Structures
1.
Amino acid sequence: MKKVLVTGATGFIGRNCLPLLIKNGYEVHAISFRNDQVQNKNVFWYNADLLSKKESEDIISRVRPTHLLHLAWYTEHKKYWAALENNIWVDVSFSLVEAFRENGGKRALIAGTCAEYDWNYGVCSEDSTPLAPASLYGTCRDKLRQKIEKYSKESSLSFAWARIFFVYGPGEHPSRLVSSVIASLLQGKKIACSEGSQKRDFLFVEDVAAAFFSILESNFCGAVNIGSGAAVAVKDVINTISRKIGRDDLIEFSKLPLPQNEPALLIADTRKLEEEIGWHAKYDLNSGMDKTIEWWREHLKVA
């Protein structure tokens, strides 16, 4: 029996991973800090604080999972880039991996970030793009990867590290780009934007979850990007949303300056994900936006 422990299971990506794990025969155990568990009778839930080493170790010793999908981190919107909590999560996460291995764990997949890369390069490749994080968030994620990579070699732990790019979809934080534009337009509010020329790699959350599942199931070890492999200008994303909602009149481009030190291009090289792991996106920008807009219509109760 494959038994997986999922942290961050009620988060944006985590809750989309659970159905895939259940469908494919995993016994799923999930940790949640808040009492906001996804209602699913096929998941064993544990209400615990991962910052407590004892609480997480007690769960692992009881469950003895074969697989670990670690998605939890400090993610307070806008604050996480420079938050000192990032340092704490390096130690917390490493202790979790140690306890997992010491209790018979075989395969660990940990969430990383595109913020580990040097963004001056634009196209981010696992094998050739330098790792030069510009934020404490990216620095701490990379520090954790290095520690686990060394530990995995010493302990024969099968370990993969997934660098996430730009995710969107139902249930995303309302202040993020896609969700804030959709919600504002559905409520008839004007939106002041920059010129929107910067290009980013956007991927629908269900595809991100499917990528995590594919990596977990594989024998791949090391770092791998999770992205679409396609660069889309932010203005094109906004225009796609406004056309679908029919409120182009509410978009005001070039009203705001581009954020300072904003890279012109940021895109994932996805050849490892597609060729070595065999994952392929199910959604394009149009179909992903359709599902996201529909979710927001229901959430906001607008026609």
2.
Amino acid sequence: MAKIIFITGTDTGVGKTVVTALLLSYLRQGGCNALAMKPFSSGSRADARLLRSAQENLLTLDEINPFYFGQPVSPAADAGARKIRSLDIVLGKIRAMGKRCDVLLVEGIGGLMVPLGEKYTVADLISRLKCPVLVVGRNRLGSINHTLLTVKALQAVGVKRVRVVLGEDKKADISARTNCKIIEKMAGTGPVFSIPDLGSRASLPREIKINVKYLQIMLAGMLGSDIFDIVLPERGEKRLFNITR
């Protein structure tokens, strides 16, 4: 079974897919058999298409995104799109994909409390997977509250390995100067990673490949030793992939 990392967000539209695509491209360029999926999406499949491109179209859209809902609402709210799936069925899809790779990145939908089906949320899915989690947010006014609430909610369901990633806005407000330091101190989850503003084209496949080279040290830090122990077992050491060639 693959090593799984779950990428969740403090809200919708905070950059989860770009972070997932960057990590996926980084791992694959370094020679790791990594795959990514976004089990749930609603309103659009653009995120799934970006992930498909980042893994050289090895998977179909339905493999990457098995539960698609046409309306831009939570999956549980769009009951007319298809029958709501049980949590066990969702876990089965993820674990089946995990058997096909060494590292599986799983991107969530919205934040932790988004209802996915009857009586279960994104947080419940993460709790059952028992995997490390990356929390993605924006570095702006309000991010301290949203990020700490998310981290505390993860800890409440038993998640012990959490890392925080904040994306910078093009026009940063004054809070952006101190948010990372305060979150790092109060969350107690280790360093908070700050991704610079990558521009309006950041979600294009070509830009993902370019930005991976620019951000590779930071991406290695996000993955941490958990992943390097898996993808470099023959070396038995923790180092950065050299993908600048």
3.
Amino acid sequence: MGVEGRAVMTVCWILGASDPEMGCIQMHLERVEAHVIYATVGARRVHPGNAYRADAPELPKGIATVYAVECGWEDEGANVVHIDHHRPGDPGFGRPPEEFFDASSIGQVFHALAFAGTPSHEMVLVAAADHCLGAAYRGECPGVDPDELMEWRAASRAKFQGRSVERILEDVASAQQALRQADIITLAPDVCVRDMRCDEPVPELPEAAMRLGISYVSGPLKSPDGRWKFTMSGMPDEVRAFLEVWAPACGLVGLYGDPARGFAGGYAP
């Protein structure tokens, strides 16, 4: 029996929060008629703030393997396989840009489905953008052209947000100007980034910063679960300074991040 049959009969895929990468993952799973359900909390699909505190899923009979894609729940069975790159212990956590495809969630799905041949070019772009966008824009992801990635990102983000490419690019340009004019904040001795903390979120800030190669701290942003979140984007030493020095000194809790991927965050107590 082929991969498609195994996926329908004995395998269930549980998908976490909605974003462009997850949409692409779902599209490929549906192409092979895989059994796909969403991780939920109180009958609503999870968001990034509660994806790893989902309700235990109700599974059809006969399911032997459960793939949890960027989500989790209490009392998981031994048959649960995590596909993820966000947390320590995840298969893709901490892996460098040159391993971006295998480290990304969509790359892990590709291998789990045992597709023959090579991944599509769109899969490669999705993987690079999601696993290490800053490194991809710096040309550190083999097979990914930074200019092509920029064009694809603008088109895919416009489609996901239901806006025009022109409006996306306007927001990117505005965020780039704000970054250039921002004050400097010191995370640790000899480690400084731009201070993008403000009352209102800056649209397309991560995209703008990674295109320019400018590191920053931003927030507070109210998360879906009501907590106030601060985030940062930068090089590995800057991420470590945020996690080990600045964020603890500021009293932030629930710290998360991956220096290899260039991101971190934490919540106000």
